[in-house]
Amino acid sequence: MATTPTYEDRLKDFSWSLAEQELGYRKGDPLNIGWHCSDRLCRQGLADKTALVWEDFSGATKTYTFDDLRVLSNTFAAHLQGLGIQPGERVCLFMDRVPELYLGFLGGLKMGAVVQPLFSAFGADSLWTRLDDAGTTAIVTQRKHVAKVRKLLDKLPQLRHVILVDAGDGPLRERESGLDLHALPRVETFDAHPTGPETPSVLHYTSGTTGQPKGAQHVHYSLISQYLTAKWVLDLRPDDVYWCNADPGWVTGTSYGIIGPWANGVTQVVLDSGFNAEKWYDFMARRGVTVWYSAPTAIRLLMREGSDLVRKHDLSRLRHLCSVGEPLNAEAVVWSQEAFGKPFHDTYWQTETGCMMITNFPGMKVKPGSMGKPFPGITATVLDPNTNLPHEGTGRVGLIAIRPGWPSQIRGYWNNQAGYERKFVNGWYICGDRASIDADGYYWFVGRDDDVINTGGHLVGPFEIESALLEHPAVAESAAVAKPDPVNMEVVKAFVTLKPGIAPDDDLELEIMNFIRKKLSPLAMPQEIEFTDSLPKTRSGKIVRRILRAREFGEPEGDLSTLMSE
Ligand code: PRX
CA–CA separation, 71 vs 61, rounded Å? Predict the structure, then answer.
């Protein structure tokens, strides 16, 4: 019997061309993710295989074969084309996890658009920042979210099309049209736009320390490493039933909730519903999930409910568990071994990397609390922050850095090439995280190297929150920092000084929290607001979040020599 190759086997003579060969891609060929995730599989005899089983909170179900993916994404693509949308234009998908989101993703790519998925819980301000920056020309959404788009139309003259997937017979306004994918005539053949490997594909907005979120620009060649990492690390096999918890508004939900598994011809299940432990286990048992890609916050929530609940469900088909997005604490790995009989395998990567960088490869010894080792083909290290050279010896904390050139590396930030170039030092891509490497080559996450807040696996930029806080009539100055949280790892805490004559009270705190929730999103909403008379600043007047954050974490406040008070 053939044995599964080990991590060491995979390292030997590794080349990304292996994935190119398996996908039947040769240099010079067109390369289109939408086509590869549907048409190619139909040609390989998988037309009638189930590609997607979708279920919502009420239990309503829809099932799609790979041929349905092919035809309905054709239909979507042809419809966008019919509206006059051109290849290269940005088409935003602003929907819950409804089937149209998945079909629209493939369809948009097939007609050559740059697909810009945005989390449907975003409020109007978060939406505006991202649509304005990307110069988006079309947004595909649902009735329940269209009010947020309508508010912005005056400020977004370039947004020519607001497309509703559930328009029904309801009234439509200027620039709005309906796209009932299941009622339109099915488009059996559609010539995918001949995108090349370097043609822009997906634009994901991600938060940094300074300025508004940046548009991370992926290209169609990302398929190569998304395909192979999904196959090897998620250990996807032809009979698997795979469930990825992530929403395609974030990179995990596209790289491994659409592209990776479908490029491998694997059946995916989607639950369009919020977190509920009982419901999740029931869903996995009924659907026979075999491979599960989740996140530490969800795992911690499940831990709270205990392992007895796990045992009430038949999860015997569950074969492989992976996690991403935040540090996976050792306790969670130990608990999963006890509750599911197998450990969660941590994986580390980012929006900018497009695919997994550091992973617990199947079969490799799991060291609970470690992110594992670099994926074959990925050269990683930790740099001494003083010299930007790789640390010598082991166990020393440094900046996680990757040698550029892997297939799904972003090719730039939209409208911000300078910001992109700043991510490279001495020939290394700098992730913005700190870690150490042990004597066995395992990476251990230490923390972020900037002020970005990671709440429940979602990055939130302090600048975006602070700018929104300043729009509240009572707020004079603000700083947003991370505060430790037992479940979400971090939550947003805001420090606020008020305008003269305004006194803080609980009502004002609630009002400001709600103000941010509506404008930005529930993720960005501060869980706590501390009213203060002043904020720590540098001599040039810049607020120093570092000190506020250090106080929250009970850490040393560091060098205070540039502070104004000094
Ligand atoms: O800080 C790291 C954290 O999430 C960041 C990337 O976030 P984003 O671009 O939104 O992509 C999330 C999903 C790929 C990283 O810079 N992060 C991600 N995975 C891990 C992690 N921190 C610790 N351990 C991980 N496994």
Answer: 19
The alpha carbon of residue 327 and the mean position of all alpha carbons in its chain are separated, in whole angstroms, by 15
Domain-ending residue, one of 179, 201, 220: 220
Is residue 299 lining ligand 1, measured as CB closer than 6 Å?
no
Q: Is 268 a member of any domain? A: no
Q: Kindly report the CATH number assigned to the domain that includes residue 151.
A: 3.40.50.980
Q: Which atom of ligand 1 is nearest to the CA of 204?
A: 9
CATH code of 518's domain: 3.30.300.30
Full residue range of the structural domain in which residue 110 is found = 68-220
Task: Provide the Cα torsion 73, 77, 80, 82; round to 10°.
Answer: -120
In a domain, 519, yes or no: yes
Angle between helices 296-305 and 330-340 (to 10 degrees): 50
Walk along the chain (566 residues) in steps of 10 and give the mean pLDDT of each run. Answer: 86 97 97 98 98 96 98 98 98 98 98 98 97 98 98 97 96 97 96 98 93 96 98 98 98 98 98 96 98 97 96 98 97 97 98 98 97 98 97 96 98 96 98 98 96 95 96 97 95 97 97 98 97 92 91 83 53
Residue located nearest, by CA, to atom 14 of ligand 1:
350
Q: Is the CB of 325 under 6 A from ligand 1?
A: yes
The last residue of one of the domains, among 182, 199, 220, is 220
pTM (predicted TM-score): 0.96
- Asked whether residue 357 is domain-assigned, the answer is no
Give the span between the Cα atoms of 39 and 46, in whole angstroms.
9
Pairing of strands 61-65, 50-56: antiparallel
Task: Give the span between the Cα atoms of 328 and 369, in whole angstroms.
Answer: 6
